[in-house]
Amino acid sequence: MATATPPQQPTPERFFNVMNAHHQTEALKTAVDLEVFTAIAEGNTTAATIAKRCRAAERGVRTLCDFLTIHEFLTKDGMQYGLAPDAAVFLNRNSPAYLGGAMEFMLSPRSREAFTQLTEAVRRGGTALGEGSVVAENPEWVTFARAMMPLARMPAQMMAAELRKGGEAHKVLDIAAGHGMYGISVAKENPGAQVYAADWKNVLEVAKGNAQAMGIGERYHLIPGSAFETDFGSEYDLVLIPNFLHHFDVPTCTTFLKKVRAALKLGGRVAIVEFIPNDDRVSPPAAAAFSMIMLVNTPSGDAYTFAELESMAKNAGFARVELVPRELAFNRLAVAYV
Amino acid sequence: MATATPPQQPTPERFFNVMNAHHQTEALKTAVDLEVFTAIAEGNTTAATIAKRCRAAERGVRTLCDFLTIHEFLTKDGMQYGLAPDAAVFLNRNSPAYLGGAMEFMLSPRSREAFTQLTEAVRRGGTALGEGSVVAENPEWVTFARAMMPLARMPAQMMAAELRKGGEAHKVLDIAAGHGMYGISVAKENPGAQVYAADWKNVLEVAKGNAQAMGIGERYHLIPGSAFETDFGSEYDLVLIPNFLHHFDVPTCTTFLKKVRAALKLGGRVAIVEFIPNDDRVSPPAAAAFSMIMLVNTPSGDAYTFAELESMAKNAGFARVELVPRELAFNRLAVAYV
After folding, report:
1. For position B264, what pLDDT does the model report?
2. Out of B18, B20, B28, whose CB is closest to A19?
3. In which order are the strands placed within the sheet that holds B220-224?
4. Which terminus of chain B has fewer CB atoms gathered within 10 Å of its CB, N or C?
């Protein structure tokens, strides 16, 4: 039973790396909050000059910047720090692709609190924070709408281009519109389309502002209130459900899809944008790991596989469901046909 | 200016991975707390049977185990979970190399609180938690002594073997002995040595128990109190300072080393076990990253380079200082000669 290579000795290294992984989260948040990346982009490249620009202690900045160098957000050459390419694009406040705002939502006090109670969430099989994030007029969704808009731009455009291949849209419903980017992208791809955006009243103000800024304000209409309770109207040829179903359990999603189907005209489609893991539920990593974000934040939401989404849609009366091969950043697009 | 390969497009992927890195820490802690790894080692391999053994919800366990599979602590084959090799060795409570206890210290409420205040620590250049971890009789050091003992065993033995090459030790002082493993290992390597352990009284009870269990109790003596204030005695031929200097600033370390030198006899040595980063302060990763753990936890501690330690020791009157080439797990060993 001789083997060509001896089995690798197990080491506790990964245990330590993961136990300390939260240090990385804190370091990135601190660096964004203190504008360290922006300071370096502006030409402050030593601990002393960065500290002055960021109003922090040189010793603290040196330790933070060394840590960010270890984790490859910065480079270090002698005493000079520089920005790694992705830090320059996404973490400099003056970059058009700046993502620092997304941190406000992803590391909100509530979201962090939810994760510190993971043990209780696993025991219960759902959030330890009670009602969860789906209560009416929750101001967190305004934060979400503002913070996540830059991130949604690209996948929303990709979705709109994919959907356009299936025909022109005329009357479009965007459910839980948030920042509005999905509906706005469809409006831009379909110059004759009227878009109806459904979300809480406070959130729709953000979407309306974005629609106006992007030149489609006159074709943009608001349906404020709970998506489960408001009257959507009817005769839509396209309904968008971007990153909404994952907050709810299968029966709730199925009932909701029935309501959506009733609002579609014959030949209409519903576009479901979601984190969709493979059937093994452990790949691809970002989509599969999203299940845990739902576990800690919602009573019974999940990242659904395509088979599960297909089953919900068929039980809601849709004739067929397709998974679009192209990925939309971390999301996938499933299209259900009446 | 044609290039053979196009430059890689920056992606926000690492930004998201690091922003979500704390999820990994929480998942590992929850899995250890609920004994998920132990449950699987005992033969419970489906979400349903693990949930029953761990008294948790099947849905919560399934999501947690999928997440642990994504991060390679578990394997998944169909519906069956298994332990990755290092999880089997280090995370099963019934394994002799179980490290779950180390989590109690590394993820103690105080340590976590310290990291959530990293921004303030960077502003100040030191811990935002006031006095820090170096107050008298802090019960956290008892937790430390109990929790970190299994981890110290191997580096302590390696240190003792290295030091034995330099000659037999007869009278040994172990400063901030903690679990006592460093002094105990020297006692075992030097059968005639008497070991004097200095630490807080409550911590020395742990060290004394370990010394007795390891058969050197009769050669083990206690010096309770502050290392800065108690009388160490004199005529030591070896003084151990394992993972102690990093809590203090350079002047404090220098003054302390003077006190240590005064306790050594002619020809004596001091063995400094530390996280010692290279002069660039960003490598090797574990030693370099330790600087941030000191930033958040202490008023002015640090991970010192060998050049800094050498300078402290020489300013304290030591004749020469050597860095032992062999690594002691994440630590290095510097030896200063009178």
Report:
1. 98
2. B28
3. B220-224, B194-199, B171-175, B236-242, B264-274, B332-337, B320-323
4. N
Q: At CA A72, angle to CA A71 and CA A73, rounded to 5?
A: 100
Cα(B326)–Cα(A316) distance, rounded to whole angstroms? 66
Q: Which residues in chain A have their CB less than 8 angstroms from residue B151's CB?
A: 12
d(CA B193, CA B167): 12
Contacts of B8 in chain A (CB under 8 A): 85
Select from B57, B294, B330 the Cβ nearest to the Cβ of A125.
Answer: B57
The span from the CA of B55 to the CA of B288, in Å, is 40
pLDDT of residue A132: 56
Residues A26, B116: C-beta atoms closer than 8 Å = yes
**Per-residue pLDDT at A4:** 47
Inspect the interface and report whether the beta carbons of A125 and B86 lie closer than 8 Å: no
Closest CA to B183 of B238, B235, B141, B237: B238
Give the one of B14, B280, B291 whose C-beta lies nearest to A86's C-beta.
B14
Interface contact flag, B15 A91, Cβ < 8 Å: yes
pLDDT, residue B132, reads 56
Separation in Å, CA of A124 to nearest CA in chain B: 5
pLDDT of residue B172: 98
Which residues of chain A lie closer than 8 angstroms to B112, CB-CB?
22
Q: Which residues pair with B337 in a beta bridge?
A: B269, B320
10-residue averages of pLDDT along chain B (338 residues): 54 90 97 98 98 98 98 97 96 92 87 94 93 67 85 93 96 96 98 97 95 97 96 97 97 98 97 98 96 95 98 98 93 97
pLDDT for position B193: 98
Long-range contacts (CB closer than 8 Å, 24 or more residues apart) made by A104-107:
A104/A143, A104/A147, A105/A140, A105/A143, A105/A144, A105/A147, A105/A148, A106/A147, A106/B19, A106/B20, A107/A25, A107/A29, A107/B19
Query: How many Å lie between the alpha carbon of B244 and the closest alpha carbon of chain A?
Result: 19
In this prediction, the residues of chain A whose per-residue pLDDT falls under 50 are 1-6
Q: Which chain B residues are closer than 8 Å to A97 by Cβ?
A: 12
pLDDT of residue A1: 38
Give the residue among B193, B195, B189 at the shortest CA–CA distance from B159.
Answer: B189
Cα separation, B66 vs B75, in Å, equals: 9
Q: What is the pLDDT of residues A106-137, one digit of tens each?
A: 898 888 999 999 999 999 999 999 765 556 66
Rounded Cα distance between B181 and B154, Å, is 9
**Cβ-Cβ contacts under 8 Å, A23 against chain B:** 115, 289, 292-293
Q: What is the pTM of this model?
A: 0.92
Cite the DSSP H helix spans in chain B. 13-19, 21-33, 36-41, 47-54, 58-70, 85-90, 100-106, 109-116, 118-124, 140-165, 181-189, 201-213, 250-263, 285-297, 306-315
